[in-house]
User: Fold this.
Amino acid sequence: HNPWGRHNCHHNEDVGVCCTGDRLRGRIRGRRTAAWWRRYHYNQRRPRLHISTRYSTYTPPRGTSAAQMLARFNASPRRRGYCHKAVASLRWVANHLRGHMGCGGSNRNIAYKFTASFYSPANARWRFRIGSDFGRGGMVILDNAIVANGLGRGHWWAYRWSNTRQVMVTPYRTLRAGRHSIVFIGFEGCCDGASAMQYQVAGRGGWKTLNVHYLRRDAMSTHYRRRWTRPTSRGQCTGPFRGTTTTMCCGRTSVHAWRRYFTHGMYVNVNARQCGFVGRPYYFSSARGLGGHWIFTGPGSQYLGSAHGFRVYLRMPRWGFPNRIRNRYQLEWCGVGRVRRARRVRRGTCCGVEAAAGWRPYGRNAYRDINLAACGFTSVPRIITSMSGNGGQYAVRGVNQLYSQTRRSFRVYLYRTSAANAVRRQYKLSWCANGFVSGARAGANYPCNGARVLNAGRTTKNNGRMCCGRQTGRWIRYSTHSVYININTGRCRFARTPTYISTLQGNSGNWMTTGGSTVYHARRNSFRVYVKGDTASEPPSLGPVTGGPSAGAASFDSAMN
Assistant:
């Protein structure tokens, strides 16, 4: 090498190195394979969403710059009831909301900062919009530049995107290939209405919720996007079903779709035409929201089921319908049925059963958190639930009501059932979730050709199969206000006792019953369902009823492989 101060490649370096020793033979370990590069690009383009709130009484004047807004937010004090957390979606977030939707704190004097860090392909044209409750004003900052300015006036969108005077919309911006950051920042005095953020990429469909799943799809190139949806060597990707023309289709209704039904009820019509079912499918449903719906009855009972959809009635106190939008009441549903031709699976199905020891006290009631991390969902999935036990579960409310849903977990409360009683009676919650699955968490057959089955949060198999049925027969009286029916699952030919999910369908009165989603005496080829009617109404119908009460069973097991 040249001495210090001399060089010969015009880079002005003054370092020389001499290497001595034996030459290594063979391949150097640690070669970067194609799988390594897939993981690298996946992590490099992974979006990150955060919500941050602080205490503030500041009202920004007109002409405030982006740097001044961020400096004012950073100077605001951190107090109890305000937080900073990572989230999977920037939809319906507020400081007073709990779980993944907020900090569970105050609804007054709040400084907000919603941040999304995302990857953009080359020359993609993006625009954003936010429906907010920024009573003291706010703005949208993209890559440190103001793209929408709402200072000098308050913003309250009233949960309507059509309210164009209150919704801040940015113009299209052409972004270079690489990572970008958008910040929605604002200040609020009272009373902390929920905010929602959306984005749109030119040429890639309409407005989408600003969440991890959609941002990841628009960031990935065609080569890396949804690799698990490609056909297998046999040319099929049909999910957890024996027949290639049987499919599972799930959805979620809008909070504005509910209609009043007298003083103590409301109903929603579910449109399943996009599923393309042929004949009457098997429907399953559950309710989700921010609070209060654990005391409702009827979310797991369907009316007027057909290939085009069904209806669900909820019975509730008088305050239920007026608070349907504030509490974000929605119906999650799944249908299993035949379609005209085989479809490639786009979503994964993950099911599990939880141990009875996980119930926690909530006053005189009980709750438990269900871990979905092993399923590998990239966004909040659609979830249906059921419960088994040794006695009394047919009278329990809350089995079909979901709380604090994220892509990694959800919560269920049991009304007027203590945690000690739930453990003593061995109440085990069964659930199935359907959603988009991360390519990094996919298995040998999951989600393309099988369901992932969990036991207490741990994966037991990736090749689970689904068998559904409907039984309409003679109900047997059990007491003055209750009946039961035995369900025969012998045609499914399970090798061992599977996980059962049951639901109740009928023409009248089943919205005032409990027990349709609870399972008794589960065995390999049968189980039993008890249904309890309201003591102030007629008991459930007895005897054969044409098109009347029926029970469907969604069971997962590998015996049908």
Summary: The CA atoms of residues 93 and 470 lie 40 Å apart. The chain has four helices and 36 strands. Helices lie at 34-44, 66-75, 212-219, 419-424. The first strand starts at residue 48 and ends at 55.
